[in-house]
Amino acid sequence: MTPDERGTFRAEVRAYLLENPEVLIEAMDILRIREAEAEVQADTRLLSQFGDAIYNDGVSWVGGNPDGDITIVEFLDYRCGYCRRAYGEIQAMLAEDGKIRRVVKEFPILGEDSDESAKLALATLQVLGDEAYGRMHDVLMTFEGPVTDQTLPLIARRADIDIDQVLPAMESDAVAEHIASIRLLAQRLNVTGTPAFVVGATMVRGYVPKDAMSRIVAEERERAR
Questions:
Q1: What is the model's pLDDT at position 34?
Q2: Bridge partner list, 105
Q3: What is the pTM (predicted TM-score) of this model?
Q4: Residues 53, 88 contacting (CB under 8 angstroms)
Q5: E strands along 68-138, which residues?
Q6: CA 136/CA 95 separation, integer angstroms
Q7: What DSSP state is assigned to residue 111?
């Protein structure tokens, strides 16, 4: 096309779009659908590539029914408001559905209180085991005050744990390595905030209400059949 022809063509296209703006809306809708499909495909590849680290890393806490037919993996920060909102809803799902396996990934991203909370929870897990961790997890998810050297004994008492047993492990290499491994996994999965969930072959970045999470669980169960 000559410069004049190109200019005429552009003017005609512009005039057409101004007269028919619904074409632009339709094009944007198609673009959004394609982007969503591409994101799902990318997530599917990531979940396949890092499946063992997500579901069976051997160090993350496993709750609910360890032999359940569907797994909910959650990347969480104890100081995250949406994580706390999701906490009660996930607990309700576990109570209603005895076939859900739950895996917790400690992913502290909101500052010093978050770091201390994660270290306390993981030290409890490594020193005292799964049951003690479960109690500590519940307390940290509902504790309203700051998490500091001054409040750690109070938090431990509420979880029926001797703080002196777990305090040394909070600064251990094992705890630091655990948190570092989860941060690396989150980076690989493009998880930048909390909460984030992996349910079967579905990645969910951000909070979703209980009804929506229940639908995802049902869809993943159906897909696995």
A1: 62
A2: 75
A3: 0.80
A4: no
A5: 70-76, 100-106
A6: 19
A7: -
| φ, ψ (nearest 5 deg) of residue 150 | -75, -30
Give the torsion through C-alpha atoms of 135, 98, 179, 173, to 10 deg: 60
Query: What pLDDT does 35 receive?
Result: 58
Contact between 214 and 224 under an 8 Å Cβ cutoff? The reply is: no
Distance (Å, rounded) from C-alpha 121 to C-alpha 7? Answer: 66
Nearest of 6, 204, 21, 194 to residue 109 by alpha carbon: 194
Q: Are 59 and 189 in contact (CB under 8 A)?
A: no
Amino acid identity, position 112: E
Distance CA 225, CA 216 (A): 14
Which parts of the chain register pLDDT below 50? none
* Nearby residues of 67 by Cβ (< 8 Å), 6 or more positions away: 101
pLDDT score, position 209: 94
